[in-house]
UniProtKB/TrEMBL annotation:
This is Inner membrane-spanning protein YciB. It is a multi-pass membrane protein. Pfam families: IspA. Belongs to the YciB family. The gene is yciB. It comes from Pseudosulfitobacter koreensis.
Length: 218
């Protein structure tokens, strides 16, 4: 895996190009499989080694190796995966493994909370040091001036902390099925909506393509 070079940490500019459909399948496939498998098995009870497991635990047990395989395939095909993907995989293994081992779905439901607290905390640490770690991850996708990166980083940090709180509220007060819908669709829509709402910031602090300006003026 690529190390330490900011230009290659985001997986967009540092790795080998692969078919976008293949990349999307590897990124989203495990989540879709988890959702569909849960809908099919949510009302079933499985007896394994004399212990009863509900469908959610069985699906969680299958999701862990599936995510490991898809992440490994992405690494093999592109030559690079982001640190966020590594952190997510580790937390899935830890919290998913605890849920399966202890036959307790609460640990896996806490996993998004830990992920967003980790990401928000890392962004906050960078801000305390006067830098934007987000810039190192996403600079290739969104060219912004330094002040723009700092503003976006502060907003995203608060957004991540908000998602962590929201996940805790959902899984502690709602049914497992409601939480699965929230995890599969709600979180993704929220992240998409956040970046969509930052249009004015991108306009105010975006870096214009000087080369494009020169050619249009000539």
């Amino acid at each position: 895996m690529t190390k330490d070079n900011p230009a290659t940490q985001n997986g967009e500019t540092g790795g080998r190009e692969i078919n976008p459909f293949v990349k999307s399948a590897l990124d989203l496939g495990p989540i879709i499989v988890f959702f569909v498998a849960y809908l099919l098995l949510k009302d079933r009870i499985f007896t394994i080694g004399g212990t009863e497991y509900d469908g959610f635990i069985v699906v969680t047990a299958a999701f862990i190796p599936l995510l490991i395989a898809s992440t490994g395939a992405l690494w093999y095909l592109t030559g690079n995966i982001s640190r966020m993907q590594v952190a997510t995989l580790v937390l899935v293994i830890v919290f998913g493994g605890l849920s399966v081992w202890l036959n307790d779905d609460r640990f896996f439901k806490m996993k998004p909370t830990m992920i967003y607290l980790l990401f928000g905390g890392l962004l906050g640490l960078g801000l305390l040091r006067g830098t934007s770690y987000l810039k190192y991850v996403m600079e290739g996708m969104m060219p912004l001036k330094d002040e723009g990166w700092m503003i976006l980083t502060r907003r995203l940090m608060l957004f991540f902390f908000g998602l962590a709180v929201l996940n805790e509220v959902i899984w502690r007060t709602q049914t497992t099925e409601t939480w699965v819908y929230f995890k599969t669709f709600g979180l993704s829509i929220a992240v998409f909506g956040f970046f969509l709402s930052q249009g004015k910031l991108f306009q105010a602090h975006g870096i214009e393509d000087a080369k494009g300006d020169d050619t249009s003026g000539g």
